[in-house]
Amino acid sequence: MTISATGLVEQLRKAGNPEQGRQTARFFKPHRDRVGNGWKHLGVRMPVLRQTARQSIGLPLKEAERLLCSEFHEGRILALLILVEKFQQGGEKTRQSVAKLYLRRTRDISSWALVDCSAHLIMGPWLEHGNRKILDRLARSDNLWERRIAMITTFHFIRRNDFDDALRIAGILVNDSEDLIHKAVGWMLREVGNRSRQAEEVFLRKHYNTMPRTMLRYAIEKFPESLRRKYLAGTVHQLNG
After folding, report:
1. 103 neighbors 43 (Cβ within 8 angstroms)
2. pLDDT tens digit string along 58-71?
């Protein structure tokens, strides 16, 4: 049987739980940058979506692209999870096709959950030996979700103790106006610090007095309590330049 976007949506409908869908919808507030503020939530849990993605790796790319435009948030998540499976298990040609599709449809990857389940797993490995300046372009985009994609993609490099891109993109986004970017930058800075406190603190000592409070709190969450309090009180020596 041929797998299709329509068939997978129907499968999700059957697996959904309306009450769970109503609860999930509360986590996704409408935003001016989001394509589809009228999304519906079916109430399908992530373990089910991940299992369905593994079983649906044969979905043609054109159908995955259709699914990525679904009116259902879970449909879009499923599309991205399938693309991750295809990217991880495919050859070079498939990886190129998946990455190019991802970049072409960034405006449909338009919630924090969609970005966070895919960016570092597709864009990260694709750019590992490629031109990472793509991230700078995304980080300077007017679109919130492209900026978050740029930051979360660097998680792939951070996990390999390669911090340069994460710190560069954090520098571009350090004064961003959006709360969802503050959280993403703070999260990635914390991940840098989990591996190299020194690398994170060099960045923080330049910016902590002016960066958004949410970003700072996320970044220093794992610091010793005494040091965390100093950052929050603004008594850590600040570096210039």
Report:
1. no
2. 999 999 999 999 99
